[in-house]
Amino acid sequence: MSEYVITSVKNQIGYITLDRPKALNSLSLEMVRALTATLLAWRDDAAIRAVFIHSSSEKAFCAGGDIRFFYDVGTATPSGDSALLEDFFTEEYALNHLIHFYPKPYIALMNGVVMGGGMGIAQAGPDCRLRIVTERTKMAMPEVNIGLFPDVGGSYFLSRTPGEIGTYLGLTGDIIAAADALYAGLADVYIPTSELPALLAMLENTEAADIRLAIREFAAPFASQATPANSKLAAQRPLIDQLFSGNNVPAIAEKLSNNSDAFTQQALATMGKRSPLLMCVTLEQLRRGAGQNVADCLRMERNMVRHCFKHGEVLEGVRALVVDKDNTPRWSPAHLRDVSQEQVAQFFAEVWPAYAHPLRHLQG
């Protein structure tokens, strides 16, 4: 188990507390394994009727995977720990699958930063999930900022947001708040942080047969504080659907450049800082993911991540963001106009025969 994953059981509810505050609960391999072991143990335990996952800190639910670990392992010579990098992504994606199909109510309190891998452990399947946001929620899939792509099932859940919202979020890596998350279908209820102690007290004492319904009833009085209709995404939905349609990132950028709206100009400026290659890869990923089930999306992403580290774009992105902190990544290619379809296609080439894929056993 992990010192950063604390578990307890109260009122037949299994509580998972992420407790790595200095790293904003960034997931290590050890944490992934602790989460997996806990959920597997509770899955068939008749004494556990629901799972509630949250953070010990209001700053972050989970900021994603431990990208410094990615860099250290990916740049080591010789890379004696490369197997750990392979294990991390295989086991993280298997954990995402386990959560998606969990047979018991799975409640995620997405208070504070919830990005990347944090989304992967919060975006459970519709049969089990309840996703809570607060006024502190800062949600994003910002992988293109480090030369990666929106993984942990992003192929699936981003491609199923309304209209082209998922495309916009994937290509820009933009941070959204509670109302936006609700509008995008990436959250279910809003509860202000001032009411969280009362929520936890209610859960410890409730005899309700349906835990999720009890939480929805608790959250109902606060719904007007963060309504989907009042979100930034709702206000910009017509522009987003118009400008982020299609299968070509340079064409999207051109449409943005020809529109003088402040929102579109900000989106264009943001995309100008992202990896040109990985934006193109991300668009292709989302278009493919729209027609795939969860397991196939995760298998596709597992192939993609191998290609991503082989290319090296992610290592350069992490170097610029968290190692040297110069925020001047040297992307390759440096411009959208230089990205070829052949380069994009390489990220979707099969790495393993179907019978040998590390996620071959995932179903549905």
Describe the overall structure.
InterPro entries: ClpP/crotonase-like_dom_sf (IPR029045), ECH_dom (IPR045004), HIBYL-CoA-H (IPR032259). With 364 residues, this protein is α/β, with parallel strands linked by helices. The protein has one domain (5-356): Alpha-Beta Complex (2-enoyl-CoA Hydratase, Chain A, domain 1), CATH 3.90.226. It has helices spanning 29-43, 67-75, 82-100, 117-120, 154-157, 165-172, 178-183, 196-205, 211-219, 232-243, 249-257, 262-271, 276-289, 294-311, 313-323, 341-346; strands spanning 5-10, 13-18, 50-55, 60-62, 106-110, 113-115, 129-133, 138-140, 189-190. Strands 1-2-3-5-7-9 form a 6-stranded mixed beta sheet, with helices on both faces. β2 (13-18), α1 (29-43) and β3 form a beta-alpha-beta unit.
Kindly summarize this structure in a few lines.
With 364 residues, this protein is α/β, with parallel strands linked by helices. Helices cover 45% and strands 11% of the residues.
